[in-house]
Amino acid sequence: MGHRGTRQAEEHAGAGAGTAACCPYYHQAIELIGKRWTGAIVGVLLNGSSADQGAGLRFCEIAQAVPELSDRLLSERMKELEARGVVERTVHSGPPVRVEYRLTEMGRELEPALTQLRGWARRWLGEERDAAAPAPSSSLAGAATR
User: Fold this and answer.
1) How far is CA 128 from the centre of its chain?
2) Residues 106/85, Cβ–Cβ less than 8 Å
3) Contact, 59 vs 78, CB < 8 A?
4) Which domain holds residue 72?
5) What's the number of domains the chain is made of?
6) Residue 74: which CATH number?
7) pLDDT by residue (tens digit) across 67-78?
8) Is 144 inside any structural domain?
9) What digits encode the pLDDT tens for the residues 98-131?
10) C-beta separation of 100 from 56 below 8 A
11) What is the 3-state secondary structure (H, E, C) of the chain?
12) Residue 14's pLDDT is what?
């Protein structure tokens, strides 16, 4: 039996032995939202839609809200989110033609999870964490510069 067959057999044997298997839906969700810049984009759309439920955001507004994100990558992420049903794209006939993006019901339902994640990040990754971390002792700091 090859490596792949061995792993499948181990996974199958371990499934009933009390091991915690990763839920495939959880994994898909983390891979989707955890993809570089996707969380920031969804966060911008959540914040932008809260001001006016009917209005979406234009591409340039999303790009301005996430300044380090390139237009190429923003376009790619928007297409992915649209394909997965998280974002809807609406074209308004012009002149000029206007394209807006807004979260679907699926996308809006991410708000509680992302709010919790934002709170966690501020607590554990933000300034509060930096302020709570002990300052390096002078002897260690001096040793590092020698």
Assistant:
1) 22
2) yes
3) yes
4) 37-123
5) 1
6) 1.10.10.10
7) 899 999 999 999
8) no
9) 999 999 999 999 999 999 999 999 999 986 555 6
10) yes
11) CCHHHHHHHHHHHHHCCCCCCCCHHHHHHHHHHCCCCHHHHHHHHHHHHHHCCCCCEEHHHHHHHCCCCCHHHHHHHHHHHHHCCCEEEEEECCCCCEEEEEECHHHHCCHHHHHHHHHHHHHHCCHHHHHHCCCCCHHHHHHHHC
12) 47
pLDDT digits (tens, 9 = 90+) for 48-63: 865 555 679 999 999 9
Q: For residue 20, give both structure tokens.
A: 């915690």
- The pair of structure tokens assigned to 87 is 């974002």
Determine, yes or no, domain membership for 2.
Answer: no
In the block, which residue shows the tokens 């181990």? 10
pLDDT averaged over the chain? 81
20 — pLDDT class (breaks 50, 70, 90)? confident
Residue 3 inside a domain? The answer is no
CA–CA distance, 138 with 45 (Å, rounded to integer): 46
Return the structure tokens found at 68.
Answer: 């380090």
pTM: 0.71
